[in-house]
């Protein structure tokens, strides 16, 4: 694929929108003809990032927005998932496997670990009171390339 293609999607920070976000990003990325494993990895990281934004970015009685930006450049996908919520006070602690700030919700605390392991590049930035942004990249090995 030549050139660059991009999309931006904003939606209410409601748990029922997580599957909408996952399917929309998967449809956008499908133009690269990813393998099923690559597609599942990307859908998983979108689910994790969006769920984190909804659950940790905003209180259950707050309204807020989640934004996903997807950029395809050649065979590389860049995803950015943002919220304007509470932000993360201690990023180092939040990135520790099994840590969760909401144990009462029976969260596994593996979101950042999963995202980091499924993607080629992973970066999270956050500022308390201003929100969180997760940027991820992955190179797609097109199935077309496997047969040539």
In words, what does this structure look like?
The protein has a five-stranded antiparallel β-sheet, covered by helices on one side. The protein has a single domain, classed as Histidine kinase-like ATPase, C-terminal domain (Heat Shock Protein 90, 2-Layer Sandwich), CATH 3.30.565.10. With 148 residues, the protein is of the alpha+beta class. The mean pLDDT is 87. The relative contact order is 0.20. Strand 4 and strand 5 (131-139) form a beta hairpin. The two termini are 15 Å apart. Helix 1 (18-29) runs antiparallel to helix 2 (36-57) and helix 2 packs antiparallel against helix 4. It is built from five helices and five strands. The protein has helices at residues 18-29, 36-57, 91-94, 111-118, 143-146, and strands spanning 4-12, 65-73, 76-83, 121-127, 131-139.
In spatial order, strands of the major sheet run 1-2-3-5-4
Give the H and E element order: EHHEEHHEEH
How does the overall form come out from the CA principal axes?
A: globular
CATH topology: Heat Shock Protein 90
Individual helix count:
5
Enzyme class: transferase
EC number: 2.7.11.1
Family: Belongs to the anti-sigma-factor family.
Protein name: Anti-sigma F factor
